[in-house]
């Protein structure tokens, strides 16, 4: 059968927390195992009240871990570290509000939470809890925060819950959880052999050595795109203007300040790129009469002469052979019209446009929304979501079409 061993050679640590849906973990283990995965189960103390470790031990063919001082993999190794290193992915199913909230705060007070903190592999949560708990703003904010850091969530379903309430919070179907894990592994390699160039953040145009003109771009959108591409196996060159956010791991980071510096670095890297995501908010004008020394406030008025900076993306559009160019446009009105004009004038393959006058999208926000247009005339509406989720969607939409 074609799909039988899609997970062979994959090491999965399954974390089970204390909710009634814990009984479904047995089915998850069984189905992942049938796909060829190696599974090690870690249970919280509360999970032990809902399902017997013996069931999971038998199904997984491995000891079940539930206490930091028991069941050592090797006598000389520490469980949470060796499990964290062993895992290609950690799946927490069912994930209670408690484990999600502990992860958000970096609390590591039992084997499962320490393993989550110690792993560098992807952690996927499949939440299951009462509707009101799920919709509690604290839990929602913890989920959004973790998503932004790259933790993934398999949405729960709506239905009758164990407590008798009706609503969201039912553990996703076991088949959907297994499919998510399989898709995750496909995703980690679908960009290998690709070289991606991403620009992010604002540029600074200096008036004198200590003052500059800039814009409020945080760099989050571009950093999320760079991170998503790196996680999917791409070699990523990230050319970044000044930002205060943590750079993604596994990318080549080049820091620049001015539009001119960004132009030079992008032109140098362009020949090896197959896809360019040009999400930086480049200053359109630089200061022509930049002062060599700090200006003194001797005059009542002052004039600055600005001159146009090179349009980096337009230049890439002129030079491109078979590279895919993805432009970004931040607009405050007539967003579709301006976006389509830029798509055409800069010879782009895609343009993502957002309305930066909205409260929930654009500069300095954690969320964003907009429309992705393609050269072929497709129009993909992308609703409000975290910048990380949006980055996944944009990358998916681009890959689907090339
Ligand atoms: N861009 C660029 N170089 C510039 C200006 C913009 O590479 N000097 C790129 C941006 O990175 C973005 C796209 O062009 O991907 C659109 O940027 P935007 O500022 O919205 O548009 P402009 O072309 O500058 O047009 P305008 O400011 O008139 O809206």
Top-tier CATH class of the largest domain = Alpha Beta
Quick one: overall form? elongated
Question: What amount of the residues lies in strands?
Answer: 25-35%
CATH fold topology of the largest domain: Rossmann fold
Give the termini distance in whole angstroms: 29 Å
The biggest sheet amounts to:
8 strands, mixed
The pLDDT mean sits at 93
Count the beta strands: 20
The side-by-side strand order for the widest beta sheet comes to: 13-12-9-14-17-18-19-20
For the record, the count of structural domains works out to: 2
The CATH architecture designation of the largest domain is 3-Layer(aba) Sandwich
Task: Give the CATH superfamily of the largest domain.
Answer: CoaB-like
The distinct ligands, each listed once, are: cytidine-5'-triphosphate
Would you give an account of this structure?
This protein is α/β, with parallel strands linked by helices and 402 residues long. The protein folds into two domains: 11-187, 3-Layer(aba) Sandwich (Rossmann fold); 195-400, 3-Layer(aba) Sandwich (Rossmann fold), CATH 3.40.50. It contains 13 helices and 20 strands. The strands form five sheets. An eight-stranded mixed β-sheet has the order 13-12-9-14-17-18-19-20, with helices on both faces. A six-stranded parallel β-sheet has the order 3-2-1-4-5-6, with helices on both faces. A two-stranded antiparallel sheet has the order 7-8. Helix 1 runs parallel beside helix 2 (53-60) and helix 1 crosses helix 8. The longest helix is centred in the C-terminal third of the chain and has 15 residues, at 387-401. It is elongated. The protein starts with 10 loop residues before the first strand and ends with a helix. The mean pLDDT is 93. The structure holds cytidine-5'-triphosphate (CTP). Cytidine-5'-triphosphate binds at residues 259, 278, 280, 282, 284, 309, 311-313, 327-330, 342.
